[in-house]
């Protein structure tokens, strides 16, 4: 479908003495045409691209979700990066390092997608560092043992895949396309986490216990990654109407529980939830109660590692200032050379 770029529609000529009303009318007509185009694209389940007209609220919602998602990937590097130097073998170090690098890459694709909506990466980073921006609750929990690398890969990346595969069909083109590649990489991440847990589970009784403890600690926070229950999710209705979200928070959480039930058997471990069951009437997986007060505390900045995560990010940003300055100086030099050459 051809994109409608309303920025390129010429201004209407203004009649003498009636400039303001004519301009208003022209603007109103553009808005109406833009809205009609947008509504048609959404109803046809097609894609909105960066230069298309879009409602201000759609742009704002996407910017919120994509920038939060980008921040999550970047902050999410920390719990695992802490374990690179302590990984039990060279092979494990190399795998973990590659995974953490992948998360950095995901952050970059997502910041790029968010930039197409008109906000600069510097602004997004400033908001994160100032503590004004959200990132996923899950990364405010500590990674205490090597088995946590397994639990993060298996549960956290597993939840991320479950949430993000439907986002590959998000109505905003740059976001959906970024998600396709991200999901492929997350799939490798989940398998490496599963494999760490499997090896520990087949190891000594102490190793198996370490794996079980890690699953016990990450299970509930991973379920809360999907966001608040549907009746307490203010953004879901509109995001679903705009084809950004395809399934509700509770639907995805329930699907995820079903996936984990099968996989935990292969691992020889258990989920720390005696209330997990398949409801034959609703055809959905159910789980025990989650502590939504804890979730709210984490979102309010009072989780176990919130201040540590932000402080580390600020430090990394400060430490990287010279790289940004060098890159800017190099880009300036290159553009001067190009201008000289063209003159
Ligand atoms: N944490 O109305 P809803 C990963 C906020 S990537 C923090 O339901 P919505 C990869 C929400 O923002 C993980 N805040 O909101 C990896 C809203 O606040 P606001 C990140 C949360 O947007 C693995 C308020 O609560 N993934 O793990 C959370 O419709 C390993 C009300 O909620 C994404 O970002 C939460 N868990 O649905 C990296 C996926 N949940 O903004 C490294 C894309 C909700 O109004 C290592 N995002 N909130 O002030 C989404 O799918 C959605 O944004 C949801 C939330 C489902 C997260």
TrEMBL record:
Q: Name one Pfam family in it.
A: PaaA_PaaC
Tell me the superkingdom of the source. Bacteria
> Which SUPFAM superfamilies does the record cross-reference, listed alphabetically?
Ferritin-like
| One GO biological process term | phenylacetate catabolic process
For this record, an example GO cellular component is: cytosol
Disordered, as annotated region: 1-27
Q: Which GO terms describe its molecular function?
A: phenylacetyl-CoA 1,2-epoxidase activity
| Skewed-composition ranges (Low complexity) | 10-27
List the NCBIfam families hit by this protein, alphabetically.
PA_CoA_Oxy1 (TIGR02156)
Q: What is this protein called?
A: Putative phenylacetate-CoA oxygenase subunit PaaA
Which organism is this entry from? Arthrobacter globiformis (strain ATCC 8010 / DSM 20124 / JCM 1332 / NBRC 12137 / NCIMB 8907 / NRRL B-2979 / 168)
